[in-house]
Amino acid sequence: MQKIIDTFYRVLEVLLIFFLSAMAVMVFVNVVMRYGFNSGLNVSDELSRYFFVWLTFVGAVVAFREHAHLGVETLVVLFGRKGRIICMILSNIIIIAVSAIFFWGTWKQAPINASMTSPVTKLPMIWVYGIGFFTGAGVVLIALERLFRLLTGRVTEEEISAFVGEDMSLEHLSERA
């Protein structure tokens, strides 16, 4: 099962590379066309904006899985093991609540976005803003799994140290920067 999950996240990382590369190519080509040929591709402006939205929200799920989001460890570092676990539990409960609200907001907004189309590509806007379903559900599932492992005592010392920001290798720190 873990191999399937790791493969899924590897696919998401490849998707992120595609979005970023496509954005760079579209913007570069558009700049060259505007300055060199006094014309441009309207579709590249619109698609690069949408790719940026997708890149951000898919990347948020990947970053959350890898503990790569910003954290404030100043208070948590003062606690012992039990205090850190309590903070991890509270943190995951808050994350679940906020992500569920985000998912619910996307759900409530979906009929409006499905009825509107983008100006150039005529793409239904649900394809742009519907990424909130993926991000909200993805973060909730990851946080639920972490919460389950915390409540059943299956959390490792490495995870607790990562939550607090301790015992990180230089390689891990450079990845977070």
UniProtKB/TrEMBL annotation:
Entry-linked InterPro entries: DctQ, TRAP_DctQ
Domain of life: Bacteria
Gene Ontology MF: a single term: transmembrane transporter activity
GO biological process: C4-dicarboxylate transport
Keyword field contains Nucleus: no
Keywords, sorted A to Z: Cell inner membrane, Cell membrane, Membrane, Transmembrane, Transmembrane helix, Transport
Location within or outside the cell: Cell inner membrane
Main location as per UniProt: membrane
Coiled coil residues, start to end: none
GO cellular component terms, A-Z: plasma membrane
Family under the similarity heading: Belongs to the TRAP transporter small permease family.
The protein's name in its UniProt record: TRAP transporter small permease protein
